[in-house]
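Listing S7. Sequence submitted for prediction.
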Amino acid sequence: MSGQQGEKRPSVVTEPPEAVAALGSRVRPKSRPVRMWALLGGAILLFQISVWARWISGPNFERVPAGPSDPPTLMKAVLITWTVVIILGLPAGVYFFIVRPWRRERRITLDGMLLVSCGLLFFQDPLLNYFNTWSTYNTWMWNQGSWVLDVPGWRSFGEPGRMMAEPLLMNAPGYSYGVLLCTILGCWVMRRAKARWPGISNAGLIGVLIVWTFFFDLVIEGLFLMPMGLFTYPGAIRSLSINAGTYYQWPVYEGLMWGGVQAGLCALRYFTDDRGRTFVERGLDQVRGGFLRQQGTRFLAVFAACSVFFFVFYNLPAQWFAMHTDPWPADIQKRSYFMMGICGDGTGRLCPDPSLPISGNDVATITPDGRVVLPPGRELPKIIPFDKGR
């Protein structure tokens, strides 16, 4: 990547021309890169749609109740207000990033495609609990459970009405324009860093961005969203957490993982060629079939890149941390609206703990009185004696 200034083509460049980091000269590339990314994006999108369809049409589309605990009045007021703000912001985001640019330029800009792509990242949100539950949402908020039990190979415990629950009214729109706005802000930080240190390398710019996104996530999640009661990290490693032992304990590695995702999204948007195109769009001019096919290919390629960033930088490392959780704090276990019905008081199931086997639907569990309960139709394995004298 070079630092040369691209041509001034306001209709296609997402960043201002003077802020765009050029990727190279205008050589007519082969269509293979964009086609490969688009094929990946298409496969991911089909997978998501199929999982969502099974969830909506199956038994897991059921509300997870809040339980006997009642959230504090202030918490409920903040959650309602924040949800209303998020919902009202969605049509504004669609107009600003899709409708208005279309009316002006008759094209979907990169920001418009990022708006939809970031919204679709919502699918991956609950996957951090794939092997073991270490994050929960506030089930006082409206939910219909989630699609996790319809994801192939899902291991964490769950059943209809007792599972990972997604606050749909907040998270579905919040992932779209909320993540996009954070990405735009991150690109502004990169421009400011470039202006402050003109000789900084692209790797240095990404380093600055990761540091910034870490502290930004600390403020937004650790100091706002979590104290207001949106979600918790009960399984966080306490020695690596801020406010450890409280319902709003914030693991520092959460900031690093999300910082990696946000850095990927910002780099995708910031480092474009002289036509305002990202690295996944190389070869787009060689895609035949007209405007709709070309733009569809472009969207699927951008969506694939966003999905890969989320999966690689967040959900993959999250699985390791899920396997090394600390005991759930009492400050969380005493609040039923954070427990999602999967463990704790009244469930007959102990919450995840380093001294217990990882909980699941098809593995033995240990009850609060110390009994081992096997899944239906299962029995304990037997010890096979050694052959002697052979």
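Caption to Listing S7: primary sequence and predicted structure tokens for the chain studied. Helices lie at 32-57, 73-105, 110-120, 168-196, 202-225, 252-270, 290-322, 330-333. Residues 1-13, 17-27 have pLDDT under 50 and may be disordered.
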